[in-house]
């Protein structure tokens, strides 16, 4: 990173990345994850966190080496975020003594009380028969459940992260479905471009692998039921794909005004060159049949970066392994990149770590920047039966390549689409 530019193609402050952190089912930290990703190792396995007898899907990419007590989404999400942020801030060499000199933007899963806590409240109500909402309210009002009240508030993860790392101002929590992690990065980029902050800590985290979430996604027919072997279930862009596999973890990025980063002697790992988003209200879960929102998000990211489609060296796909998502993403990419889409390497990390939901966009941004740094594209594993209707250059085994710019796609339920252009030098 020898470029000395401090403004982007639109004369805005250039946004540099100076720190990365990652936690997935493959391991903790950049080194462990990169080693596993580039050899095509899967982190998807049989769920051991709770009983799965009678469930159609019994596998996930859970992070079992950082357990919390109790095993609930807010605490798991907080723990993953802490570990990823710790690594990113240490690499950036910023924020000593718990005083991060910038804002916090964190993507967190929707929070609601989980079944074990609901059952405990029902038992505490003293009713032997049917328990009414009023009974639960009465039980919740007792001091016995004060800790749960704090635990299951939407902003509680952000508050803990802000306290631990000393971020400035009010922390921003957001939840925009599967695009959330990328949206957190976008908010950080925009704050730096507007001159509101010199640095931003952007995190996507999710610890939502619990019985209720698993069953809800299963009822939507969104999950793979190919439980055996677990590591073969997630197969983006393959003809025999049948659904996504839940995963969890966190990705964290330290973003800085490039001029400020250079002034303090920071090592610049890459740049967030462009962000594009497009929402649509077509359906709560399905994509618009014409692919227009996804196409618009990709084009907006390229335009924001000031680059043409030819400048992209590889695509880090959303690639969930559901029949519809992969078809729509392939169609959208073909509309933007034309005939070149058959020669443009594309790969989905979800084939190895599963769909980390709220965290996905941030985790995949970290992996995209590691791809640039190492010149190696991680594989889209389980691509044994190509879908002949998708004319894509799917990276079935890790591929060495000169990578300067990556398009990272995040397409969420409810038509929430966010795309990022990440690069090793200004456009």
Kindly report the average pLDDT value. 91
Classify the helix fraction into a percent range.
Answer: 25-40%
Domain count: the total is: 2
> How would you sum up the global shape?
globular
Low-confidence residue ranges: none
Biggest sheet features: 12 strands, mixed
CATH class of the largest domain: Alpha Beta
Radius of gyration: 21 Å
Percent in strands: 15-25%
Return the CATH architecture of the largest domain.
Answer: 3-Layer(aba) Sandwich
Our measurement of the CA-to-CA distance between the termini, rounded to an integer number of angstroms, reads 13 Å
Annotation, overall tally of beta strands: 16
Please work out how many helical segments DSSP would assign.
Answer: 13
Pathway: Lipid metabolism; fatty acid biosynthesis
Protein name: 3-oxoacyl-[acyl-carrier-protein] synthase II
GO molecular function: 3-oxoacyl-[acyl-carrier-protein] synthase activity
Domain Ketosynthase family 3 (KS3): 12-424
């Amino acid at each position: 990173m020898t470029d000395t530019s401090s403004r982007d193609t639109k004369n805005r402050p250039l946004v540099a990345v100076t720190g990365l952190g990652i936690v997935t089912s493959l391991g903790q930290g950049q080194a462990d994850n990169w080693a596993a990703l580039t050899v095509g190792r899967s982190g998807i396995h049989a769920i051991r966190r709770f009983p799965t007898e009678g469930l159609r899907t019994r596998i996930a990419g859970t992070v079992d080496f950082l357990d919390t007590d109790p095993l609930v989404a807010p605490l798991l999400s907080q723990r993953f975020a802490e570990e990823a942020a710790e690594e990113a801030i240490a690499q950036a060499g910023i924020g000593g003594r718990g005083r991060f000199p910038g804002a916090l933007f964190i993507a967190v899963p929707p929070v609601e009380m989980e079944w074990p806590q609901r059952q405990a409240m029902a038992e505490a109500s003293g009713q032997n028969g049917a328990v009414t909402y009023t009974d639960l309210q009465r039980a919740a009002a007792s001091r016995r459940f004060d800790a749960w009240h704090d635990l299951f508030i939407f902003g509680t993860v952000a508050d803990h992260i802000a306290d631990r790392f000393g971020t400035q101002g009010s922390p921003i929590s957001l939840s925009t479905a599967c695009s959330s992690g990328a949206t957190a990065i976008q908010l950080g980029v925009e704050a730096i471009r507007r001159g509101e902050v010199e640095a931003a800590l952007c995190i996507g985290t999710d610890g939502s692998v619990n019985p209720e979430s698993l069953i809800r996604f299963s009822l939507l027919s969104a999950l793979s039921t190919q439980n055996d072997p677990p590591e073969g279930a997630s197969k983006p862009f393959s003809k025999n794909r049948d659904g996504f596999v839940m995963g969890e973890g966190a990705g964290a990025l330290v973003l800085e005004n490039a001029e400020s980063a250079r002034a303090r002697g920071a090592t610049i790992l890459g740049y967030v060159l462009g962000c594009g988003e497009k929402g649509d209200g077509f359906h709560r879960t399905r994509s618009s049949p014409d692919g227009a929102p996804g196409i618009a998000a990709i084009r907006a990211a390229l335009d924001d970066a000031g680059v043409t489609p030819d400048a992209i060296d590889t695509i880090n796909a959303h690639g969930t392994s559901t029949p519809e998502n992969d078809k729509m993403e392939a169609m959208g990419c073909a509309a933007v990149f034309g005939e070149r889409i058959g020669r443009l390497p594309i790969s989905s990390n979800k084939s190895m770590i599963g769909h980390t939901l709220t965290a996905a966009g941030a985790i995949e941004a970290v992996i995209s920047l590691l791809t640039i740094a190492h010149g190696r594209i991680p594989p889209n594993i389980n691509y044994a039966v190509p879908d002949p209707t998708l004319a894509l250059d799917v990276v079935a085994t890790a591929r060495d390549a000169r990578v300067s710019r990556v398009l990272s796609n995040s397409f969420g339920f409810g038509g929430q689409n966010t795309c990022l252009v990440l690069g090793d030098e200004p456009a």
